[in-house]
Amino acid sequence: MYFEIVSEITDIGVIARGRGVRNLARLRKKYGPGSWRKLKGRATVRMEDGSIHDAEIHWYEAHGIGSKRFKIKRILD
């Protein structure tokens, strides 16, 4: 599902870090070694059909590599 984040991400929280990240081997293989964390937050997103919603999003992040693999976990409005 395609979506675009149109606001700042707020209420950011860490879900897992280091060895607690389930996809750690895949992330390291694709993007490189780093101290990977899985994060969650809230943002306004524009869906593929043009509708705009508040949503909870999850993504992975590592220092020096950046944020990767954003996905919508639930629509909040």
| Overall mean pLDDT | 96
Instruction: Provide the gyration radius in Å.
Output: 13 Å
Question: Unreliable stretches, pLDDT < 50, 5 or more residues?
Answer: none
Which secondary-structure class do the elements indicate? mainly beta
Task: Give the tally of β-strands.
Answer: 5
- Count of individual helical segments: 1
Strand content: over 45%
End-to-end separation: 18 Å
Order of helices and strands: EEHEEE
Q: What is the total number of structural domains?
A: 1
Helix content: 10-25%
Could you say which overall geometry the principal axes of the C-alpha atoms support? elongated
How is this structure best described in words?
The chain is mostly beta strands and 77 residues long. The protein is built from 1 helix and 5 strands, in the order E-E-H-E-E-E. Strands 1, 2, 3, 4 and 5 form a 5-stranded antiparallel β-sheet that branches. A hairpin with a 3-residue loop joins strand 4 (52-62) and strand 5 (66-75). The mean pLDDT is 96.
Short description:
It is built from one helix and five strands.
Describe this protein with a few key phrases.
77 residues, 10% helix, mainly beta, 5 strands
Secondary structure: elements and pairs:
Blueprint lengths: L2 E3 L4 E8 L6 H8 L5 E11 L4 E11 L3 E10 L2
Antiparallel strand pairs: 1-3, 2-3, 3-4, 4-5
